[in-house]
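Q: What would this complex look like in 3D?
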Amino acid sequence: MPQRRPVIVYENPRLEIATEIVKSATSGRKTLIIAGNCWVDYQGRASSTLEPGERIFIVKEDGSVLIHRSKGYEPVNWQPSGSVFYTTQRSGILTIRAVRRKPRESITTHFDHVHLIVVLSLVDKGEFSLYASEEDMQRAILLRPSIVEEGLKPITYEKKVEPGFIDVYGIDTKGRMAIIEIKRKTAGKEAVLQLAKYVDSVRNMVNREVRGVLVAPQLVKGAQKLLVTLGLDYRQLDPRKCAEIIRETETKKLADFY
Amino acid sequence: MPQRRPVIVYENPRLEIATEIVKSATSGRKTLIIAGNCWVDYQGRASSTLEPGERIFIVKEDGSVLIHRSKGYEPVNWQPSGSVFYTTQRSGILTIRAVRRKPRESITTHFDHVHLIVVLSLVDKGEFSLYASEEDMQRAILLRPSIVEEGLKPITYEKKVEPGFIDVYGIDTKGRMAIIEIKRKTAGKEAVLQLAKYVDSVRNMVNREVRGVLVAPQLVKGAQKLLVTLGLDYRQLDPRKCAEIIRETETKKLADFY
DNA sequence: GAGTGGATTTCGCAT
DNA sequence: ATGCGAAGTCCACTC
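A: Here is my prediction, written as structure tokens for the whole assembly.
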């Protein structure tokens, strides 16, 4: 039984060889990295051209394409997953065309020199987890409403109203309805205005006093004033606190279980 | 004088060697690619963990970091440019920590096996140009208003009015004011409503008949009906056509110049 | 430096 | 499939 080769490297391959490697890698659903001198044309939702230069060209197993320059977080050209590849070689130039349907678009990359090709078979079953998201904050509030205010009773969450979705709503100690808008980071004016819209929309639907509460770790400068003007409340809440509450509750559940 | 080495490759380096290569690459502002088995912790605007698996780890010259799995357009973990790096090696594990200020966040990547390290010095002066943007469509309309309708005379563009910006406005053959809202791709209901707001706003300001014209390559399903209901016009216009017009005009300008 | 809007946004989820 | 909202969005531009 042959051993797995996670990485196969070709340094300065002849263009004919490079062409064959690329063809076999793209048809064999391998991850492919090319470093070389190339120029790129994109046609699709917009159009673009990239003049010659040395870049890193990556094709992943699912047919996504990334072309990276030596600077910047974002790829200069790209294609999301699902591309079909056409690789050709003619008069000293290797051309890789990646075509996607829906939306119809294509990236054509021409290489006149290939410094390096790497073909990878990556084994990756590891799980990725993101914590302290807005969803976690919502869960934390539902688990322990007192972190927003004492006596709050959540009624429901992710409720659809005309302008969008309300994160949580509940009844406060004085029997008023409380609309809760959650932001996991510093809330700006747009968050305040969104909450105002929700509150307005709910006021037109229910026969009860309605309050709006913005829950966020912080506010931008102008937002505080805007909140006051619009008669809305604010409750400072750190996402880390929420993560803690979720952790505690999970632990408690486990303890109750045993 | 030593020749430039655009690509230096190390296959299955010992971890001690790998550590030194990474240190010298990050301090020397080189582009670095590592393929290996790693796990990742992120702390910052949110928090995340990524369990062990084989991935591609990239550091660029400006200190941006990308960690890519074998699938998907987006990196699983990343850091925009400006990170500072701390590389250490202890009990068989290579740790690379990338820290950024403002916002304060860090990615810590641990490798227990490195299949490949590539250190690159990419020369890339090529210019990147993107065509047929919304701005290009606006320019094309100003250059040749007849593509919207015969006899249209543009008055001004990007005029500030209450709800936002009017892309172009002009006077039509019947002396009416025409508000033109441009979308470079399929226009949705929100574009229609925005235009309606603009038209409404202008009607309150001028003593003249005011029309609204939505210019876009396509409409979403419901938008057509909404346009009719609101008494607005639609003009289909392909961004590629606009690019063509701009090209022709530039050519003509050159010809006139000589 | 902070806020605002756009993107070849991408992605996920609900309809 | 389509539409809508969120993102560790990033990025460029304005104030």
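A: To summarize the key features: Chain B has two domains: 7-120, 134-243. Residues 42, 44-48, 74, 77-80, 103, 105, 188, 220-221 of chain B lie near DNA strand D (CB under 10 Å from a C1').
Q: Very helpful, thank you.
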